[in-house]
Design goal:
There is one protein chain. It is built from three helices and 19 strands. The protein is of the alpha+beta class and about 375 residues long. Among the domains are: about 120 residues, Immunoglobulins (Immunoglobulin-like, Sandwich); about 100 residues, Immunoglobulins (Immunoglobulin-like, Sandwich). A hairpin with a 7-residue loop joins β18 and β19. It is found in: Membrane. It holds the Pfam family I-set. One of its GO terms (cellular component) is bicellular tight junction.
């Protein structure tokens, strides 16, 4: 309500004071165009000569702030404020627009209520959007052509895209930039860089608009992979080692085969020699056994009667005839034969016990 009353009183005051002003003052320097980022402040200056009474600031044709020489600034909203400066006979009023928005872009006027004494400028509010490269690190191989995509979203106006590699600008023929409208009056841009890296390098995408003090940037590191050459040498080395290993293993295999054959032959020879010796020992043992049995059978005298048995006192029932005659004689009732147990002859010493000569009969 107060602001409405001020807007009504201002024209009345100006109308009442105009006849006595004399119209001897003027605007010596008007406002200049300004380009700012959304959310920041915009400032405009208007300088008038001595004798001025009223200075009015208009935003898109509507008064937003009034400055009276006798009272100072009359502010009607917090978004539009002013600061005043005096230098000699001149007076300067600075209009400050706070928290600018994209919709604030337009015409700003400075008026002292005299014909042809209005000065104006234009306010341009720009929006700094986002800038990104999807991959922060890429690995590329030799002679590999790649595409790097830089995406700018939500800008006003559409940004100018440029590329740099290792702090040097890339030729414009190496990339293509496409612009498209976004939401709420904003713009998008997509830039695609095509190149064939020769070494590890850093690529930087730059997006610039007038309101930015320096371009916004996004970077990606290209890691040049020279493992193909390394793999080539490693494969050669691997092949060399394989060949050497094959030769060594072949030689070892041959040596091992020779050793196995020699061991097998020696084992067979030992086995045969052992078998032959066993056979010889067996034959020799059998021969010795046969000779012993022959010797025993040849020396044994079945008709031999020990000297003790010839004593009739020790063998009273023994017939006077030798056993061999009783063996071939037929049965005789009058002949009384007493069975005498067979006594195995005992070995005698080499010399005879008695010098008697004994007749030995061998039955075959």
């Amino acid at each position: 309500m107060k602001s409405f009353q001020k807007y009504i009183l201002l024209p009345l005051i100006l109308t009442a004071s105009l006849p006595g002003l004399g119209f001897c003052y003027s605007i010596t320097k008007g406002p200049e165009n300004a380009t700012v980022l959304a959310g920041s402040e915009a400032r405009f200056n208007c300088t008038v000569s001595a004798g001025w009474k009223v200075l009015i600031w208009l935003f898109k044709g509507s008064p937003v702030l009034t400055v009276l020489s006798s009272q100072g600034s009359v502010e009607t909203t917090d978004r539009f404020t002013s600061r005043n400066y005096s230098a000699g006979d001149e007076f300067t009023s600075e209009l400050i627009i706070h928290n600018t928005q994209l919709s604030d872009s337009g015409r700003i006027e400075c008026s002292i209520q005299q014909p042809s004494q209005n000065n104006f400028a234009f306010l341009s509010v720009q929006v700094n959007g986002s800038l990104l490269i999807k991959n922060s690190t890429l690995t590329v191989k030799d002679n590999q052509t790649i595409e790097i995509v830089c995406e700018a979203l939500g800008w006003a106006p559409a940004p100018v895209i440029a590329w740099m590699t290792n702090d040097s600008l890339v030729d414009k023929s190496s990339y293509v930039t496409q612009q498209s409208p976004g939401s709420h009056g904003l713009h998008n841009a997509l830039s695609t860089l095509t190149l064939t890296p020769r070494d590890t390098e850093v690529l930087t995408c730059l997006a610039d608009i007038e309101a930015l003090p320096s371009p916004q940037n996004a970077s990606v590191t290209l890691i040049f992979d020279n493992s193909a050459t390394e793999n080539y040498y490693s494969e050669d080395n691997r092949s060399t080692w394989v060949i050497v290993l094959a030769v060594v293993l072949s030689f070892l295999g041959i040596v091992l085969l020779v050793v196995i054959v020699v061991v097998a032959v020696r084992c067979c020879m030992k086995r045969r020699a052992s078998t032959y010796q066993n056979e010889i020992r067996k034959v020799s043992a059998e021969k010795k056994k046969g000779d012993l049995e022959d010797r025993q059978s040849g020396s044994e005298n079945l008709g031999y009667i020990p000297e003790e048995l010839w004593n009739t006192e020790q063998s009273p029932g023994l017939s006077s005839l030798p056993p061999m005659f009783s063996k071939f004689a037929g049965p005789d009732d009058n002949l009384h034969i007493t069975s005498v147990p067979k006594v195995r002859p005992q070995r005698r010493p080499d010399y005879p016990i008695s010098p008697k000569k004994i007749r030995n009969v061998t039955l075959v």
